[in-house]
Amino acid sequence: MITVVGTGTGAPLPADVPAGADLVVGARRHLEGARLPADAERIVLGPLAPALDAIERYLDKGRRVVVLASGDPGFFGIVRALAERFGPERLDVRPDVSSVAAAFGRVGLPWDDAVVVSAHGRDLRTAVNVCRARPKVAVLTGPGAGPAELGAALAEDPGERVLVVASALGDPEHERVERITPARAAARDWGAAVSVVLCLDTARTLGSVRTLAGPPSGPSRWALEEDEFAHRDSMITKFEVRALALARLGPRLGELIWDVGAGSGSVAVECARLGAAVTAVEKSRDGVERIRANAAAHGVDVRVVHGAAPDVLDGLDDPDAVFVGGGGREMPAIVTACAWRARRAVVVAMAALDRVPAAREALVKAGFSCDGVLLQSSRLAPLPGDVTRLAATNPVFLLWGTRPPARTEGVPQ
Hints:
Blueprint lengths: L1 E6 L15 E4 L1 H6 L7 E4 L3 H13 L4 E6 L8 H8 L4 E4 L4 H8 L8 E4 L5 H10 L2 E5 L6 H8 L6 E7 L8 E5 L1 H5 L7 E8 L37 H11 L6 E5 L5 H8 L3 E6 L2 H13 L5 E4 L14 E4 L6 H9 L5 E6 L5 H10 L3 E7 L2 E6 L3 E6 L3 E7 L11
Parallel strand pairs: 1-4, 1-5, 2-3, 2-4, 6-7, 11-12, 11-14, 12-13, 14-15
Antiparallel strand pairs: 7-10, 8-9, 8-10, 15-19, 16-19, 17-18
Helix pairs in contact: 5-6, 11-12
């Protein structure tokens, strides 16, 4: 049997837990803070594989193993690796308070509506995108993915976000919980004691009573009517086109979507409602303000960049998927720039069919498989005398490129 004990953020380790243990495995701080049997072997956790091999040798001899971990070891912790290697039936797990629960407790906030994302040993971009998309996020940090890096990524984003940096939780002498702006967090050296970082939209930290824990399940509808957005002279992606574009973009939590040539921002807003972080690029000043107004009206955060593509794209983080709308002579150059930056998909909406070959060529050259459809729809429209006619909308060619799964990493730059 392996006894797995969470410690560090709540009550001290019970004295009887390590008693009689033949092998004790844990981080150096856990081993130094516990009263261990004098004859017990100690393994300081570094690479996991050698520790698991040692545990297996002790179990094969019928000897007792204790593993010390932080907080709740079943929450982004070592329980997963132990259960996969030895089976859950061989584990006796005794969790303490997780660092996430402790951090929210320190600032007096409920966390049943929070999103928890780990950046420990993982790419920070997922955590950044989740923080951009959700009002209450807990980030489990690691080397190279701490408050400074997170703050630098979020410093120029919209909204009133604040970072709560919780360090050395459970240590009465060194515990520290600080509220700080992303920009100020980026300028600090935080050391190695950070337990967890909370990213909070201060205007939305308290919500209604929940039935299901975690982030909202998503909107009940999408491809919203055009009159649900402010737009200029019907210059908006029609809902029939938007429905298929959303299906091909596949926006989801943890990803970044670009809406280039955003216009009213209808695609950007819909992607944000579906959980993605979104950057909308628009060259007209009135369009920028319109996008911001539409995002606010639908209760989502959309980062709006004022400038002309493709040049303005250079300073942006690489997207998972891109929607390109609008038109003009620069369309092929924009699609080319987006295609070489997108990790997964590019969707292009065009009214001018003579732009299709160049856009398709740009997608294929960037390694995408390419497909498309001409969308022609007719909507029900009333006529005098309580009768109905069909009113045709302008046809739009929708082209989409999908990067084969084997090439989603290492996208050419």
